[in-house]
Amino acid sequence: MQRFAVIVAGGSGTRMGVAQPKQFLFLKGKPILAHTIERFFEADNAINIIVVLSDAGLAMWSEYQETGATIPPHQITLGGKTRTESVKRGLALVPHGALVAIHDAVRPFVTNEIINRSYEIAELKGCAVAAVPLKDSVRRKKGDAFVASNREDYRLVQTPQTFLSSIIIDAYDSLALPDVTDDATVAELADHEITLFEGTYENIKITTPVDLVFAEAILNSRK
Predict the structure, then answer these.
(1) What is the pLDDT of residues 184-205, one digit of tens each?
(2) What DSSP designation does 191 have?
(3) Taking the complete model, does pTM exceed 0.85, yes or no?
(4) Is-contact 115 49, C-beta < 8 A?
């Protein structure tokens, strides 16, 4: 089946504490977004990559492209005010009868194996969501207290979240809520079963300043 990737890159970077959106911060001489696009191209150069940008992000990305940097082929579309709107606009460029991975622009360390496994599982199951077990003990809020919970009952959900395109397109079209931050939840609300598969702890979402420290360490270890 034809493969698509919708890379959501419309965030503002508020939690990073900087004016520049985090997907445009530089790691090893290139924006985080560029690293993320490269991961999908390296995994399978036939993937149709769609990048969803805000108006401000489009200007920043155009400025970077004008430097003559080598960037894998990709298509750009403008996002909306929320992540839900942005994903829907990306999905508008994806045909039914395909496979589509939805991925955070600020997860630049996803591996080729994770990307390809997500497509393979989604083709069989309709859905494939990368997730990892919790390392720490957890407590659940119960009234005014926090009670111990079994961490084996929980998973940390990552991206890519990959689907048969008809499933996720129709799920977003039927979504009644104004904004949902997790694509698997959208599919689940449309009564589709969610299939998790093992992600990696290196597949971090760069959101806060300390994540940049981890990101530099991961890049150095991979080199």
Answers:
(1) 999 999 999 999 999 999 999 9
(2) T
(3) yes
(4) no
